[in-house]
Records
---
Amino acid sequence: MSQKPSLPKGTRDFGPIQMYRREYLFSTIKSVFKKYGFMPLETPAMENLNVLTGKYGDEGDQLLFKVLNSGDFLNKTTSEDYEAGSKSITSKISEKGLKYDLTVPFARYVAMNRNDVAFPFKRYQIQPVWRADRPQKGRYREFYQCDADIVGTDSLICEAELLAIVEEVFEKLNFEDYQVSLSSRKILEGIAEACGASDEFSRFCTILDKLDKIGLDKVKEELSGIGVSDKGLTTLTTILAIAGNNDQVLKRLSDQLGNTQVGLEGIRETQETLDHLGRLGKTAKKIKVDLTLARGLSYYTGMIYEVKPTTISMGTITAGGRYDNLTGVFGLDGVSGVGISFGIDRIYDTLNELDLFPTDNTQATKILLTNFDDIAQAHALTILGKLREKDIPSEIYPESAKLKKQMTYADKKSIPYVLMIGSREMETGIYSLKNMTSGEQKEVSIDQLLNELS
Amino acid sequence: MSQKPSLPKGTRDFGPIQMYRREYLFSTIKSVFKKYGFMPLETPAMENLNVLTGKYGDEGDQLLFKVLNSGDFLNKTTSEDYEAGSKSITSKISEKGLKYDLTVPFARYVAMNRNDVAFPFKRYQIQPVWRADRPQKGRYREFYQCDADIVGTDSLICEAELLAIVEEVFEKLNFEDYQVSLSSRKILEGIAEACGASDEFSRFCTILDKLDKIGLDKVKEELSGIGVSDKGLTTLTTILAIAGNNDQVLKRLSDQLGNTQVGLEGIRETQETLDHLGRLGKTAKKIKVDLTLARGLSYYTGMIYEVKPTTISMGTITAGGRYDNLTGVFGLDGVSGVGISFGIDRIYDTLNELDLFPTDNTQATKILLTNFDDIAQAHALTILGKLREKDIPSEIYPESAKLKKQMTYADKKSIPYVLMIGSREMETGIYSLKNMTSGEQKEVSIDQLLNELS
């Protein structure tokens, strides 16, 4: 009996066209990572659950895909376990889960290989991760992450290099319409301190983060609700009104944060990052110091940055920051680092929407040789051998068939040239080469053909 | 509390050195696939269990990794289900599994996309698969498969192209010491018929497959046990004694199989495959027609082939064959095909053992700039910008540190050059370039440096 097959919710196949585009994206990003001295790493899809749980908060734990133990998985359970319900029986029937991000497996790798790794360790990792989230537009249960991190140094050169990587990657992708927001957690702490909200720092951040959505008045109202004084609110208003280029913004902010050591530290680090970037020959013209930048993740402790398209609504397409103590939970202290994550799916959608993918696919078949009968086929195979010897991606239609069928095949595969091989051609050694884009047809010898296509 | 992290049994991390080598392997194979007109495909790690189960036999079903439903997975179960045991409760708490191979997901993809796919469809797929097998040397629970298939045509050109791909891939990898065994299931059927064992074909194959291990006498004994007559055994002995080059073997076999239509068909197809290969400009000098080749998988119906190293003991490193009705189980009949699978892990081990991986890693950092203090660091960053503008993979040591520490870093990362940047160098614009392999040091200007390394 045949069955109608389907895909699990929130997962996708990537057919040839998507794959060509994804490979173009991945190889572009990889080439820049490598140029900056980052080394590749891959970790397994499955991790032991004790590596994964407790690292992403309660919500994250619930979104982990858990793998059922193989064999008689119930044999470590009792009917009491069953009666106690899903949550309590899980750990007895499942020991492994699918990885939720690339950061925790990376931390595990560093902790396990601490003696072999060359610190500071620069690694990149491009692999799928899995989250049992409710699928919706742009949110998948299986999706690729594309991360680069440098661990084992506090040098702000790292931040500058990651920002330089952003500039180079998007330049190579011919994508110009984006902005990089840059700040430091320490600036935010300084602002909180200047507003007298240090004790409520995390709620202060959460409220400030809503500025774009709810506006300044509402933000002030909520801040007042958590005990920020009128004087504090006035200071905040002044700070949020700061405008100018990056140097000016940082200068003006330091006038406001003069009394908060952490704030001044954040300003100095931001300035130093920008200075390093200039020395690296980067214009930093897409970078805007954004004093309200908070980034959701609470583990960031220093510089933070995020990239958004400016002409289309797509959300954050790339982001990252500095964090403390990556591997502490795995028994290796003192390893802090800084990272960046390229949001592959959103970058894909962005390039797609802006029509920025290359139209000529250098990876795909360049020419199809026709196949009308056994004699022409034998003849075509010898030509095919010569084309491939020149590394020209080429095919023969594998069966004798009507021209129309072979043309349809070339069309469907977007093959740009078709070489006609009939009895006249075999006799004269001169073949009709059809350009499938223009429809033009011209006569070529094999040598001319090889020259033209290689 | 910190925990000692570990990896799930049978899974591996791939650190930088392994990754460089794996990427070299994958990109070599991919480039040949593309040259032959194969297009990339990726399918999700998770498939619905109804897609996977029943496709790999009972043993395969047991080796599937099953993913626990998310949320309150017990809510579709009763305590009777629990009492009935693991096997019967599985389908109620798990709907998805990790893919077991690339063939079934490929079949599902073709069935689901039958209207968009250009038939004959040539696709390659390089992705991990998962099997809950007992881990042992060379056998992993998560491992990559690397497959190319052509579906939707019976043309033997496809077989010839896959064999040409084998020749090109191993040539590109500079690996010469291998042999390709080639035969057809139909030849085996012919032999069985000639021996009067057609009714017991599958047991006949199983026994014949043991020839290498148990020897001819034992094989004959076992065949006698399933009812093969003395006359049949004599015929078999004659057939197994056939020697010579491929043309001779096929000719001599056809004298023996003259009365079996299927056998003659197999001989004709084998000969035609070799003829096509010659037309494609391939020598086929590694190919040996092997009349006893059976290949374990019962779904092969036509040509079969496998590749083994000749100078080391590694087993089959690449194999494939023609099969019928790939997608029938998913409601799409008449799609047969032929494929090849490169065994990445074994090929990796083979190249490793024979020391065939390239020693100069063109993907990794080529030069490290030293960092002795803030002034030298600022100076170094401007040089770094110029190196990267020329696409030279390069790094600065991110912190001021003792020379020894920086040299150790370069050594550990196998960076071949180190540029010394001290006050004298900054003054004169002439820098010491140290070759880390030879230990030599020479004086270069920035222009000379850029020329030398690009």
Note: Chain A touches chain B through 113 residues (CB under 8 Å).
---
Amino acid sequence: MSLFLRALRGEDTPRAPIWIMRQAGRYLSEYRALKAQHGFWTLARTPELAAEVTLQPVRRFGMDAAILFSDIMTPLPDMGLELEFKPGPVLERPVRSAADVARLRVPSEDEVAPFVPDAIRLLRRELGDTPLIGFAGAPLTLATYAVQGQGSKEYEEFRAFLRRDPETADELLEKFTATTINYLRAQVAAGAQAVQLFDSWAGIHDLATYRRFGAPAARRVLDALADTGVPRLYIAVGAQHLYPAIAELPLEGVSVDWRMPLSACRSALPGRTLQGNLDPAALLGDAHSLEREATAVLRDGLGGPHVFNLGHGIFKETDPDMVARLVGLVQGFERHAHDVEAPVPARDVA
Amino acid sequence: MSLFLRALRGEDTPRAPIWIMRQAGRYLSEYRALKAQHGFWTLARTPELAAEVTLQPVRRFGMDAAILFSDIMTPLPDMGLELEFKPGPVLERPVRSAADVARLRVPSEDEVAPFVPDAIRLLRRELGDTPLIGFAGAPLTLATYAVQGQGSKEYEEFRAFLRRDPETADELLEKFTATTINYLRAQVAAGAQAVQLFDSWAGIHDLATYRRFGAPAARRVLDALADTGVPRLYIAVGAQHLYPAIAELPLEGVSVDWRMPLSACRSALPGRTLQGNLDPAALLGDAHSLEREATAVLRDGLGGPHVFNLGHGIFKETDPDMVARLVGLVQGFERHAHDVEAPVPARDVA
């Protein structure tokens, strides 16, 4: 079994497997060339193109896992929510009322973004031993976006909506939950060997709000995948204050951002494989600072199962040579050669 | 002495004083009228206009403190960094090199944004017993903005800069520190009765980076105000992971955002007056949800000295009637009528 899947099963692997959030994307010239030709939305919805883009970084750098090239908004059109990418997703008609929610369809496993399972089937043939991660947006995050209508710093429309009409918010979350279950089950049936649930905007909410709206929906999605046996990963950025609730979710792994050291995250998220947490800005520094920061993360991760990743998506300004350097560094770091009990130095930036 | 200043001196006041971050601003029609006439930058730099805008919410709602109407970028032009507001501040020439930093001036107490002390002197005559809060951006936050050149979600230019050239970052922080000391000392000399240091973007950094670059600069500013005797407040949003370092700063009060309950913040920030932490989105709900959420904050604040505020700036969409309702509710809540030992219910959003 691959190192990635072994680490997600809780094994203290000889070295930490590595993949990188948004590893298929704009920092790669071969991606930019395809995107210039086809546009983002066509890339995401054409199985051959999505598969090709997914493979690009794995071919170039030899990451230990591939993640399907897609967007968390991909299933929305099949629910009746039309999108445009300009370049971020913008909803033609944001959800604002009970009538808007009532109008939403819950597509079946066969109906929801069928090009995604098609891409997964193509990829499994190409990827060989490299495991493939499927993913979806978590219901709270999809609802946040659907009500706001587009990316936002504060998502105040959604935060107002939760207060003005919590019952309608519940119905909206229910439709996203049912859709996300179908969407992820279809991905697993097509061959995804792990899934990551992106609760990208959960961190804007306080713990009580997250416990009331976000955690129960995420739990239903994760529970509905239990019988598939695939490991379940979860990510929320800037969400350290939510860890008491995230620690209770049925998850094998949690992606953590760079704000809190892995060793502190281990105490907050006991029994989970941790994934992370190099600051993506470390790839914008020089070779020396990258080595220092990446090594600090590797050492800080020794206390339990660890999948190396960035704490958030890679910046489009990143030099691919720095990615190659990082992958080599992580793949050359033998965990068992280091003493877990030795004091781990604080990450020293300067 | 006013309730606000008593609370900042650590007194368990009979009721929590209230003011609201960005209380002078776009949610008020009288502000929008003045801004349409003069533009933001003229309002901020004309003492009579800045004073008038500062007074508007106090006159209308009777908050327990006024905060000078200004912007944290106000001192930058006197350092040689020209700004435009479109509508957020944009630097004509961002700081990117050692030569850019060497070129920056450190204006004296008399030279740095002199219209601000002038506005403070006007305000002290008008405000009577209502205390006036002066403020400035913290050096780390000013440096973040100066390098990035404008508002950003990720501030990746600055995060790269810290890694590529930490020595130049130190020199940049030193110039902002010296300027901020002069700027705040001038505000106190003119009559500001408390100061708040805004480290608005500190939360994007991990604790080690904050300890290396942010905390020492903030400490120097705060130490340089110790002899004035004015209480010192500090705010960083989304910064719960930095509380171990913030707890060591020489501060009388800390503004905390809505993500973490006040009672948990008290444990993380012992011995400080807490200021906060209603979710600004609570003012976008209805009267019922506002009362429930505000009361939960008031009860959660009973464990020590508390200044009621929002956890972040008020949204421009806020109905002023909701603000009036909130001020009345907070000013009518007698702290000593409630049992601190009683279990405080979790904030219930729905």
Note: Residues 166-190 of chain A form the longest helix (25 residues).
